[in-house]
Amino acid sequence: MWAAAAVSVPATNRLEGEGEFMQFAGVIPEDGPDPQLEIDARVRSLPFAIVGLEPQPTLEDAGLVSPQESGDQRGPSQVSAALSYQLWRNPADREDPIILVKLDEASRAAIEHEPPWPRPAWLVERAQRMRYPLLWETVRTTWNRDASGDTTVQRLLVEHTNYILMNQYREPLGLEPGPTIVDGAMERHQSAVNSVATARLDGMEVPAAEIDTDPFV
């Protein structure tokens, strides 16, 4: 089961510039920089706070921030940043087999393979973390330049939910592999949103929206 959260941020500052993220091909040298560092720097420059989950024993910030941006001739119109979390089903014993992901032989071999050249420490750690379940892009914070029906918390939550379903639950949903969107009966709509929910933000109860009837999210 996946937890999807969408947080809307009102437009109070204009965003300037666009980030260019590093890409690697071939063998990464042992001293090769972690591309996440450049992404993190871009996210820190955003003029709004990124919301995450409250600290809890079974969840750990995976240190993977995923930014997205769209715009027009006037500049950025929507910017979002999503946080992923590592799931520890038994936080008291991280060697407990119950917390491991069920990997096929090819995936397990790829993780355990030791190439004949040294690798950066950050790359080795990322490979080892693939053994454990990752709640991918669990929380997404979104800034919108212009308010509309497409920028409400309810609409953003539905969009985020369908995005998770499209990318993480294709097989259970009976979707073919590929970048096709979730459609028809498999798409979640705003009618599934509970708009009278509440959430705790910075120690205070605030109005929220939730989808709590989905078998996957």
Automatic annotation (TrEMBL):
Name of the protein this chain belongs to: Uncharacterized protein
Source species taxonomy: Bacteria, Bacillati, Actinomycetota, Actinomycetes, Micrococcales
